[in-house]
Amino acid sequence: MTDVRLIDVSLRDGNQSIWGAVGVRTGTIERVAPHINAAKYYAAEAATSTMFATAVRYHREDPWDRLDALRKAAPDTMLGFLTTGKRFITFSRTPSNLFKLAFELLRRHGVTRLWVIDPMHDMEAAMSTARLAKEAGFEEIIGGLCYTISPVHTDAYFTEKIAQFDNCDAIDSIYIKDPAGLLTPERLQTLVPSLRRGLKNKVIDELHTHCNTGLAPLTLLTGADLGLHRLHCALPPLAEGASHASAMQLVHNLRARGHTVDVDLDAMQKASDLLMREARLRNLPEGKPLLYDEAYYRHTLPGGVLSTTARQLREMGKEHLMPAVVEEAQQVRADLGWPIVVTPFAQYIVTQAALNVMAQERYQRISDEVVDMLLGDWGPMPGPIDPDLLDRVHELPRARQRATRAEQEAPSLEELRHRFGGSLTDEDLLLRAVMPGEQMDAMIVDRDSRRRARAGGADLGLRELAAALSDPQRPLSIQVAQGDATLTLTGRRTAPARQGTTK
Fold this sequence. Notes:
The chain has helices at 10-18, 26-38, 49-59, 63-73, 96-108, 123-136, 155-163, 185-197, 216-225, 247-257, 265-281, 296-299, 303-315, 322-335, 345-359, 368-374, 387-394, 397-407, 413-420, 426-434, 437-455, 462-470; strands spanning 3-8, 43-47, 78-83, 113-116, 140-146, 173-178, 204-209, 230-233, 260-261, 476-482, 485-491.
């Protein structure tokens, strides 16, 4: 039997999977993290670059303050960061000097564990990222295999790829990441032994899988049976659905099967209760178990991409095209060389499929993102690219402009500091380099007000409160706290009726 250690992903992947990456705020962290700390998890996933973007854009909160709050509230829990090593916040490639700064700052703010995953399985690039992180002082770096299904992604393919990590000193161990929830117990039973045969120095002892098909709870149990010691899970309401298996039920199931799990279920329940309370007060969704859907194994499109595409087609009056777009996405993925269907590639695939369907001709118009992907911005494709499509791509202006763009060197940190102002902190400099200026300006105004209030031992002054409540771009939220009790009121603003009209 296996001595299992749990890794909590509620505040990052659970938030992203169920609450669209915007539900968790710094206040959420301050309330919930002490109980996560008491639960005795092996580690907790603290952030990806998406957290930084949504904190600034949607909540006007400093993401570094959020990490500090998590570190303070959970001092005994190892905090982790997930990266592809190729982009930080933006969908375009991020220069290495900014990644180096990001890693140094993450360590400065208490993050010690790093998962590095390259969705295209460019293992040299992943190892380069791991070395950069190790130099920045990360204590534990986990190299990932990104699971998907296609004619290309066989056991032999995965085994050959993962073996490249075996002699990399910067990588401490290896994990299987199943972002779309495609793994089944039967598939895991063939995959894990094959991967282990390709390794002599490294071990695979961690599993990350989602509940999109409803099979994740069983797949995790199979992982424990196969000796995988570290399993990812989430707390309701940020479990199930497109998220991860429910942590408390997973513990019960593991123990019933004979595995050992040393966690504090009472602390986990308290954290879950607080998250559930927040969901209901703020009208946030609660993850629910999904029914098994065989069709999902054909298109593998994430639920968020499907819902967004359906909404966009509906807004254009073309919702009747949705089934055709989903069907076309399968052909597009094959033509592109079978990229894995995760962000940002899932969006690239479905956008191109929609363009094909609306034009009633394949590749009459090719998106810039697809051009960049096929010409190597994200590494080599796993399989062969359709030659006719590749010929079309090479003839496009976007392809001819690439040589000019390649000659433009990324600005140095000194140049960026001169551009944005020499008095910037390293944290603000990094965010300024990758975020829209107006969003950063708004975040800094709110952040500085909060910091002044804390320094004075008081809440926001009436002037700042009035200004915040009058801003039509901000969600309306009022929170009143007394002792351990907190009341949060949220609502939507309604534009005032025009003169001469009635509402």
